[in-house]
Amino acid sequence: FRPGSVVADDVSTHVAIRGDGFFSLQTADGEELFTRNGAFSVDGQGNMVTAQGHTLSEAITIPEGATVNISADGLVVTQIAGEDPQEVGRIQLRRFINPSGLEALGAGLYRANELSGQPQLGNPGTEGLGELMGGALESSNVDVAEELIGMIMAQRSYELTSKAISTSDEILKVTNRLKA
Questions:
Q1: How remote is the C-alpha of 131 from its chain's centroid?
Q2: Distances (CA, A) of 128 to 19, 71, 180
Q3: For an engineered disulfide with 133, which of 16, 21, 95, 175 has Cβ 3.0 to 4.6 Å away?
Q4: How far is Cα 110 from Cα 142, in angstroms, rounded to an integer?
């Protein structure tokens, strides 16, 4: 859960976390899941949702035709042309005593369990939680050079093991010929 770099993409409902923390999501059946993927969009009812259709736990509703601005502390403000800006909610973050204990569900979703501990709620920028950046997404935190080195080492280990097995087979063949 090492944070990746933040890349601006100008989609106003996209949100990146700069630092620690997770977004809390509600599934259709009421289960709470967690993610760092802030690629939110607005569904037909105006709710901020993930690509899978899970809503933010804060249930933020965006009026049709409104522009969205999300501040570093999570405040969501919308504005419709010719009207005053309106606060429609605040995105809060969750953190865990042991985030590596979260149960991975795939697609960047996680479930809390005994190993992770219960989620601790807080406003972005407080209590050790990261700040939010609207109109941006967190990119992958994979270090390509490090992964390439690991892959080369694994390939060499495989080659050596394969050669050792071949040598062992040759020794057994010679031994069997000598006994005959």
A1: 15
A2: 8, 17, 74
A3: 16
A4: 18
